[in-house]
Amino acid sequence: MHILTVSSEAYPYSKTGGLADMVGDLSRHLAKLGHDVRVVLPYYRCTREKNLDTEIHAEDFKVICGDKTVTCRILKFIEESSSVRFYFVDQKGYFDRPELYNENNVDYPDNAERFIFFCNATVQMTKYFDFDVDIIHCHDWQTGLIPALIKTGFSKPSTLKEAKTVFTIHNIGYQGNYAMSNFHLTGLPPDLASTSGLEFYQNMSLIKSGIIFSDFLTTVSPRYASEIQTPELGFGLNSLIKEKRNKLAGILNGIDDSHWNPMTDPFLCCHYGPEDLEEKTNCKKNLQNKMNFPPDPDIPLIGGISRIAHQKGYDMVASVLPGILSNDLQMVILGTGDPQIENQLENISRRCHNFKFIKAFDESLSHQIIAGCDIFMVPSRYEPCGLTQMFALKYGTFPVVHATGGLDDTVKNFDPVTGTGNGVKFTPFSDIEFTSALVKALTLFERDKALWKRVLKNGMLENHSWEHRVIQYHNLYRDMTRNSLPCQNR
Length: 490
Ligand code: ADP
Ligand code: GLC
Hints:
This protein has 490 residues and is of the alpha/beta class. It has helices spanning 18-32, 45-48, 92-95, 111-125, 145-152, 206-213, 222-227, 238-243, 280-290, 314-324, 339-351, 363-372, 388-394, 405-410, 431-447, 449-461, 466-481, and strands spanning 2-6, 36-42, 55-65, 68-78, 85-90, 102-103, 106-107, 135-139, 164-169, 177-179, 199-200, 203-205, 216-219, 248-250, 301-308, 330-337, 355-358, 375-378, 398-402, 424-426. Strand 11 and strand 12 form a beta hairpin.
């Protein structure tokens, strides 16, 4: 199949979070199955700085955005290792900026215009293709306009005549809601500026466009597919999602075994696998030294890697940390985000010798934390899928998570009687439940080394790889191109 994937980020060309991992990994694994996979991305400054060997696909390309015309270039890059083709939309005014979406926690004021342009550029560039597209897979609000342009736009390139659209919701909390005054840029018929179209509480919602006009919707875990149909986690779109539930599936993300594998990881000082955890102790020692903690293997080391945002629960973590840190344990958190929570964590880091907060986005350190810690926490209020708990499982690091979304789908409570399970999850979301889950993990670590090792091994032997999960997308695309739309929650 000819698959066109459209996203605002993909690893390693641009990344702020798991969306980039998911889009990059899924694309490469689809290509491995033999599909022709092409990915459209903005050409950000961080992408340009990679000095890729690109060729020009379209020069001086005029993109019609409603009543405005914007000129750009389309660059093409073939990734030799995967044979995935990347198309970068190079429009300096919109994308040659220090960050992807915001600076100092303030969104770029023209984000609506930037991504409306990106969607129009994507649709219009397909007229240069010498093949017909079978599937257009759009990710998150930044690409939400595309299904609407394809269904209702004035001029659709002939290469898209047969194309079916899939829209994946990675996080329904981020909706791309902007003033209706931007509608004139969309290129959509004026009657869609209404509640049966893009209007959402007097604004224009780009995620709503994706939800309404795509042929099929997916989200990134089965549990999240149910949760977004509830008022608690639907962020105002729950009724609409419920209405569309017959075209919705929750497909769990995978992880890329070639990038996240403790047996080969180039960021680690030592390598280990499920049959031999010996060298994990050296990874721990290395991390302890790096953090200026005493390199004692018996002191439990807890880690967290996250966007520091309300969604991720780190405000709650900060509030209970002083109590937790009075115990004989060490903790390291790597992340950036909300300045208020960052400040709280920095203050605690200054005061407590056994806690380090590293305010950075650091890939190498993220691998060392996943490998070097004994326990890994993911205390998110909600989590559509979450990748770090799956990295932790693969690296023999015990996950402590809130039982929500993909965390609930991937972590199973350990059972001291049967020796089954791979971690601990808590519910409801509260500081008391979080603390008591941590205590459960710490108690097991200290009191029952045999069971501890068994639970770690259970997690390491599970298969969370994309190799295993990509087939669900393959089947979905195949059914869509055969016009046999799959049913709910496959
Ligand atoms: P989300 O996309 O909601 O932020 P995920 O768990 O899906 O959460 O993905 C987060 C991704 O970003 C993971 O690959 C994680 O390792 C990475 N990440 C998050 N914060 C940092 C950081 N400060 N440094 C390095 N990697 C990070
Ligand atoms: C979003 C979600 C996260 C998910 C990621 C990749 O960022 O918040 O849970 O893992 O997308 O799908």
